[in-house]
Amino acid sequence: MNRRHDTAPPAPPRPAAPFGRALCAMVTPFTEEGALDLDGAGRLAARLVADGCDGLVLSGTTGESPTTTDEEKAALVGAVREAVGAGVPLVAGVGTADTRHTVELALAAEKAGADGLLVAAPYYSRPPQDALEAHFREVADATGLPLALYDIPGRTGVRIAPETLIRLAAHPRVVAVKDCAYDPMGTQKVLAATELAYYAGCEEQILPLYALGGAGFVSTVANAAPGPLRAVLDAFDAGDTAGAAGWQRRALPLIDLMTASGLPGTVTAKALLNALSLPSGPVRAPLLPASPEVTGTLVRAHRALTAPAGRAAAG
Asked: Which of 137, 176, 214, 277 is the right S-S partner for 198, CB 3.0 to 4.6 Å?
């Protein structure tokens, strides 16, 4: 007699989240004259932590790293560390197209008080996989900080292949991946073969990746709406998968407007933060500010997500 097995195998343990689960890819506030606004950065960082962010990623793409100086990047880490204290993980973006420069930024971030490093694949030169692996190993060997590798081929022009990630996972300081590769098969191969903590770098993938064993998210949208995004993770952890899906769907209109409307996330995040009277300021050229029409649409979507009625509907 054949027995029917309806019980699913137990899920493997979720890898530790080395920088927390809910991370914001924080904008870099500037004054109206375009200078670095360290006071505003501290106030924004403290607000994000109070609103549900476990940790902050500084000087990533959303933080306008291509147009901030090395000195500004180090000063930003120091100011945010002072504002949020020692218990909040700070991950510094240090990825550049030059291995030597990346190492210099990594050393400066460590000295300024960062807890980890976000390292994207070198852009534009499109190095092959053996050169990519050598690049990441050199950065990992340069400091005592853990690394999150940033896999975003749409911006860098080169994919970090799953096989390369699996090899790099053996390095004691390579601990995480920020995943914007849009390759679920490749992601699952790495999750199955390693203990790397996988963070969704694309907000529409927060719940799918978390359900597969991901660590959480690194989000641009969290600049303006950290609570609803964290609610996706909290509901899932509580066993409320329907509630988690409700929060994911409820956040989708704002996610779409902020990340998939044809404007860079930096532009939409700063437009919304400015409209909410939160520290932000202008973007730096070559970026241009969002139009009043776009800003108005963002504000309406944000209001629908965060209003009490919207929160109840997500449940």
From this structure: 214
Could you give the C-alpha distances from 11 to 7, 14, 233, 234, in angstroms and in order? 12, 8, 17, 18
Question: Residue 279 contacts by C-beta under 8 Å, 6 or more apart in sequence?
Answer: 29, 37, 39, 40, 41, 43, 44, 273
pLDDT digits (tens, 9 = 90+) for 173-220: 999 999 999 999 999 999 999 999 999 999 999 999 999 999 999 999
- Bond preceding residue 228 cis, omega within 30 of 0: no
For the record, the structure tokens of 256 come out as 């779409």
What gap in Å lies between CA 297 and CA 35, rounded to an integer?
Answer: 28
- CA 197, CA 89: separation in Å to the nearest integer? 15
Binned at pLDDT 50, 70 and 90, residue 308 comes out as confident
Q: How many angstroms separate the CA atoms of 239 and 311, rounded? A: 18
pLDDT digits (tens, 9 = 90+) for 142-174: 999 999 999 999 999 999 999 999 999 999 999
Cα separation, 182 vs 214, in Å, equals: 14
Q: By the 8 A CB rule, do 107 and 74 touch?
A: no
Active site residues: 150, 178
The count of residues in the chain is: 315
Residues whose CB falls within 8 Å of the CB of residue 297, separated by 6 or more in sequence, listed in order: 257
The one-letter code for the residue type at 224 is A
Task: Answer whether 27's CB lies under 8 Å from 272's CB.
Answer: no
Supply the pTM of this predicted model. 0.93
* C-alpha dihedral (182, 48, 77, 112), degrees to nearest 10: -110
What pLDDT shows up at residue 307? 87
- Short-list 301, 191, 306, 184, CA closest to 253: 301
